[in-house]
Structures are given as structure tokens and as C-alpha cells.
Amino acid sequence: WECLFPLSQCDNEPLAQILDKPRLVVVEEPKDRGMRFRYQCEGRSAGSILGASSTDSNKTQPTIEVHTWFLFLRWEFNISETVGKYFLYFVSSCSFANLGIQCVKRKELDDSLQKRRNQNIDPFQSELGAQTGIEDMDMNSVRLCFQCELEWEDGRKDSLSPVVSKPIYDKKATTTSELKIYNLNKFKGSCKGKTEVYMLCDKHTKRPVPSQTSYVNQMF
């Protein structure tokens, strides 16, 4: 017969410290742009949050995994009654489909934060708005927070450390949305510089706009 239990219960404490303890890992980040935040009155017609590697032909969703080591004991009953010890690396994944983002009006922030306090939703003990004022909150970007609780056969429960995703930016916000170029007066210029380029976009943003140039050898 065989036995399987978490490495944290292993008698070999130095070995348990060397190998990883159960942890939560984000293996598929959410797509950072292209998602529109919706107000509650607009309903749930904004689509779903896709994974960062999602394509038109292969849709992915934000995915997390639980990684942990187990001590695997297998007894082989024979004349000498030998016992073998093995270590099994266990991975369990979970993908989140049909997730949307519902934004809150700034005048309703106090009520929304109080509701979260009443529900004890504060995984990082940040006191929800106490450290940074409401006026300093960025309403156009969010991160997904994932929490996980493991329940063993003996009834014991382990709460894993919460993890957060990379930021997701509101598609319609001026400060965070992707700029669409409608008109560009020049597509190439001299390597000596001093070429003025005018770019007309669908909206204006105060943040720096990165640009990329490439060299083309016209001799060939």
C-alpha cells in the first residue's frame, strides 16, 4: 500500500525547508489592454478578460497554479519488508473564464471600500484606502488578486500567500488606453535626423509615448 501527505508534515525538517512549500503562482497573466471597464448600470456585455498569450485562433484565460511537494511512501511487502521514499511534485491549475471588470464611480468609493471591509476582503492588510487617499486612487487600472486555501484529508487547512496579476488598463480611458494613429505625415527620414514627424491620434495623453525606429539599407 502507499501513503501520500504534504511535505510540511515530513519528519525531515531540513529537507522540508529545502524543497518548496505550497505556493500560488500566476502562470497566465491577464491581457493588459483591450478590456473596457463597465459600470454596474451597463450590465455584463463588455466581454471577458483574456489571457496575455491569447490569439484570435487560441483563446486563453487568466490561470493560476498551486505548486507543492508531497512525500510519497510505497511499502512493498516481501521477505525483507523494504520501503521506498519518493517525492512527487504536485501542480493543480485553475483558469478563470467569463471574468469582467465592473468599475465604481468616484463618489461611491467610500461605500464600496466599506463593503469590502465588512466582508473582510483585504488580503494584504492594506486597510483599504487608509494609506493612500481616495483622490490618489487610479480608477483606470486594476490588478487581479488570487487567494487559495488548501484543505487536507485530516481537515487541516492552509491559506497560501495571495498573489496579484500585472495591471489591466481600461480600454476607454484617455490615460491608459492604446493610441490609434489616424494620420502620419512621414513614414521615413534621414539618419542625420532633424526630420519633423506629425502623428495624429484618436485621443490625447500626457504620458510619454515610446517610438521605435529601424534602419533600412536602400542600396540592396
From TrEMBL:
GO terms for biological process: canonical NF-kappaB signal transduction; cellular response to stress; inflammatory response; innate immune response; non-canonical NF-kappaB signal transduction; positive regulation of transcription by RNA polymerase II; response to cytokine. SUPFAM superfamilies: p53-like transcription factors (SSF49417). Pfam families: RHD_DNA_bind (PF00554). One of its GO terms (cellular component) is nucleus. It comes from Nothobranchius furzeri. PROSITE patterns: REL_1, REL_2. The gene is relb. This is V-rel avian reticuloendotheliosis viral oncogene homolog B. Residues 19-175 form the RHD domain. One of its GO terms (molecular function) is RNA polymerase II cis-regulatory region sequence-specific DNA binding. InterPro entries: Ig-like_fold, NFkB/Dor, p53-like_TF_DNA-bd_sf, RHD_CS, RHD_DNA_bind_dom, RHD_DNA_bind_dom_sf. It comes from the Eukaryota.
